[in-house]
């Protein structure tokens, strides 16, 4: 990554280029596409962005560039664009589609998208974000992520979470009143108490802007869409921080006794956060609400559940490979 000279502060450096990671979580899909003859920069294009400081206009420009390839604006007859998005990438993909719907000059491109595949989409937010944001996940200090766009856009939203998602000092916080904690958390991370601090005001402004983009992703994409998920794992739905947001949250017994992970989240079948069914990251109720929300406004949505996997290993399953290959042109 090439460093830019612009800084948010001493902890946050911006970058002018982003590495296209082809060996991470999505590597099984990259290998599959390459095996089928879909070569990089020819028939396969990847949107890249700095998930800490998301610049939506630049992302949308990439999106338009890729969707326009091989298209004729007078006929837009080549319905050959297939979008595959995973996790937070599903949020970004749908925001691009929503912006396209309002883009008079390029709206015709909407008709060139034959399929949108959303794998474990985190649209609507993820309760696990609260654990990372306030107490950390054992990998990265929460003081480094409190400002990240992707983190703020992954907070649980009231449209998908009706019950409390966090308990602190015996008070249950629902998704619609999390902003108070988030705003106050800024002072902790910056060792400040002045509510009139201009940087705090900038943070509040950013938080409001981010919320608008998150809510944009809730809208039906109005293209043929397949939501792909898993629902047979213990998954946190609410965290009890007791009286300390900086310490690991309380543990609970799992829904079943068939998982024995040694990770920092799961110990002796106890789990940080009250568990429900899901993919270990995203509660299935969120997927179900998203499906019903979109299904009620069109017949363009189908839901595929893949069992015996989780939020990460689903990318390695034969079932997912079959779904992808059956929808490729």
| Averaged pLDDT | 86
- The gross shape turns out to be globular
Largest sheet: spatial strand order: 3-4-7-13
Q: If helices are DSSP runs of H or I spanning 4 or more residues, what is the number of helices?
A: 9
How far apart, in Å, are the first and last alpha carbons? 34 Å
- Tell me what portion of residues adopts beta-strand conformation: 15-25%
Polypeptide structure, described:
By secondary structure, the chain is an alpha/beta fold. It has nine helices and 13 strands. Helix 2 packs across helix 3. Mean pLDDT is 86; it is low at 1-11.
Draw up the topology in text.
Layout: E1 3-9, E2 12-15, H1 27-35, H2 56-68, E3 81-86, H3 88-101, E4 113-119, H4 128-134, H5 149-152, E5 166-168, E6 171-173, H6 179-190, H7 198-216, E7 225-229, E8 233-240, E9 251-253, E10 266-267, E11 270-272, E12 274-278, H8 284-295, E13 301-305, H9 318-327
Parallel strand pairs: 3-4, 4-7, 5-8, 7-13
Antiparallel strand pairs: 1-2, 5-6, 8-12, 9-11, 10-11
Helix pairs in contact: 2-3
Outline:
The protein is an alpha/beta fold and 329 residues long.
Key attributes of the depicted protein:
single chain; globular; four-stranded mixed sheet; 9 helices; disordered N terminus; 329 residues
